[in-house]
Amino acid sequence: MKAAALLLACAVFAAAPASAFQGGADGCGAGSCRDCHALTKQEAATLLKGKVGEVLDVKFSEVPGLWDVDAIYEGEKIPLYLDFSKKYLISGNVIKIDTNVDLTERKYVEMNRADVSKIPTADAIVIGNPKAERKIIVFDDPECSFCKKLHPEMEKITKDHPDIAFLIKVYPLPSHPGSVPKAKAIICAAAKGDNAKAASMLSDALHGKPVPAADCVTDQVEKNVALAKELHITSTPTLIMPDGRVLPGYKEAAKILEALQNK
Hints:
- Helix 4 (179-191) packs antiparallel against helix 5.
- The chain is α+β, with helices and mostly antiparallel strands.
- It starts with 40 loop residues before the first helix and ends with a helix.
- It has helices at 41-47, 103-111, 145-160, 179-191, 195-206, 220-230, 253-261; strands spanning 54-60, 66-73, 76-83, 89-90, 95-96, 101-102, 125-127, 134-140, 164-170, 238-240, 246-248.
- The strands form three sheets. A five-stranded mixed sheet has the order 7-9-8-10-11.
- The protein contains seven helices and eleven strands.
- 29% of the residues lie in helices and 20% in strands.
- It has two domains: 2-111, no CATH class; 116-261, Glutaredoxin (3-Layer(aba) Sandwich).
């Protein structure tokens, strides 16, 4: 997550008792510590001017003594934290110790939920049953080593769960210019209705084997690149769950199935 680049201070507050953030009986601590702290969206925007592009929302955090600040940084929606003193900006993963839940990752996923209905999949390569009830969209780069690792996991899932299918959007990363001609060739095969050939060509590309040149003219690669930018997708593989949750990075089959259950 790009939030790591903003790191000014990082701490895990989840284990600290609420009293650690409250005053004595003569001050703020007479009630909830939140009673005498306030932070508006505008004030947060002023405090973070030059550090983030825009502040989207501010509210009290689940973590005592902090505000959750939803912001845009380099075009991506990210969760940040400000302490009640308004002197410390915290960027990084906050984990609740007793449950091991990563609060930051959970918030990041919720903030970047995609509208699946607006993602075109006519160009997608299908792994599994095209009529499967649950479909997971995957942005794949033909030269991505982690995509190569992900494919056996997807095949394992579709073999054991015929109600799940993966729709592969071929997306050459800007850092992999050599992927562009391969992506166009694979997309051309898919456009002709030959899903098996397109899947085989993608597999060959992922394993470093040569791929025939594109035999059609297509602008689908450019469309996929533009769509990835719109969805704030900056790495591959990236999975988009049926409910729109965007999960970047390689995942084992068990983790993907767990994510499907944890909506």
